[in-house]
Input
Amino acid sequence: MLSRLQHTSGVTSPFSFEMLKQITNNFSEEHIIGRGAYGVVYKGVLDNGKEIAVKKLKYMPPEHDSNKQFENECTNLMGVQHQNIVRLVGYCHETRREYVEHGGKYVWAEVDERVLCFEYLQGGSLDKHVSDEPCKLDWDMCYKIIKGVSEGLNHLHKDSIFHFDLKPGNILLDNNMMPKIDDFGLSRFFPSAETCTTATNFGTLGYIPPEHIIGHQISPKYDVFSLGVIIVIIMAGFRGYYEYKDTASFEFIKLVCEMWQKRVHATTWSHISQEVKTCIEIALRCIKHDREERPTISQVVDVLSRIDVEKLSLKCELRWEFMVVPLRLNSHLVRWERMIDRCMKVTRLSP
Output
């Protein structure tokens, strides 16, 4: 781990535990901005006024290997820089001796403190915007989140980093609703894309693919399945995701498109209908039971990129139309002016 920390030392900073206590008022309740299975997140403000999110990892039983979790999250994030991945700004790992009460007596004990510090994102997490119903955000914002998460995940997979706990609660949003993938405690670095088997299951129920539930198998298609679930939940809500299992794919696609068509103006729908249909089709491919039938994340990004090209092409066509119409009008005006000028000349020459 030390070599990777040194290699990326310019990106993050080591913080003392005492300093982190100070900026969070001794990790007080009023500074808490989030809680998770592995730690509590506090808001802190550095001396330069910069706000950061301070994640203090909980003590876990030995079988959970807390040090391994800290090392995974720290080292995997240090080497990654992407607009759709939360940025690690600092870390702290200190062991100190404290005089504590144990069994009615005071004894010296070693306390292991592990803290990770991230950029502070004021938009909170995506799970605030999803429910049983389709996401209440407008389509452009939903598409921005879908595309951003896909691109962030693609960047991770290119670096052979697999998340294994992708869900709305682990997608943070900035002030402009730019999504950033968060919480790398379960992430793993795999130099090859081959399927591996783990001793136990990990992840969050509902986002875990069937091959991992049944056979503890992990591969890049694990994250692709989780992404598909997230897209369906954004577009159709939790209820829609669970009802999909009893609905034919073509019928579900039709239902989702109809739901979104009712939410937007007819003119807008003519421009976004293909986007909505393509995104829900991608999602259903991602959650295929057989992982061999799921696309890779790079294939997902390629399809979304084609949508962007088509959108840009449409905008260019519309702009051209707006430019051509005035030009046509101007040419008619020029011709009229010439005709009037000729008439005036003829009038002046007449006796």
